[in-house]
Amino acid sequence: MTKEQFDILRKYVNDKMIEICEEMLSGDIKIEPCKSSKVTYCDYCDYSSICQFDTSLKDNKYKIILKKKKDDLWKSMVDKVKEEEGE
C-alpha cells in the first residue's frame, strides 16, 4: 500500500466512523447485520443474545455485501473522499 492509498483509506474510514456515529446519535440504530456470499456476520457477533434479529420477521433483512474488485473499491473510496473534501 502506498502512502497516498493509506491516506485515502484513513480519510475514508474516519469519515465513515463520523457518519455512523452521527446516525447513532440521531437515534438510527436499526438492526441490519451484513451477509456475504459465504459469511453471515451474526456468527461473529457478541450481541446476538440481545439483538433479536430474526429472519422469519418481515422487517429483519440482511444487508447484502457484494464482492467487488479491488480497483473498484479503491475508486469508490477515492471518489467518496474527494466528495467529502469538496473537490
From TrEMBL:
Keyword DNA damage recorded: yes
GO biological process: one example: DNA repair
Keyword set, alphabetical order: ATP-binding, DNA damage, DNA repair, DNA-binding, Helicase, Hydrolase, Nucleotide-binding
InterPro entries associated with the record: PDDEXK_AddAB-type
Domain PD-(D/E)XK endonuclease-like intervals: 2-52
Keyword DNA repair: yes
GO molecular function: ATP binding; DNA binding; helicase activity; hydrolase activity
Record-given protein name: PD-(D/E)XK endonuclease-like domain-containing protein
Gene source species: Clostridium celatum DSM 1785
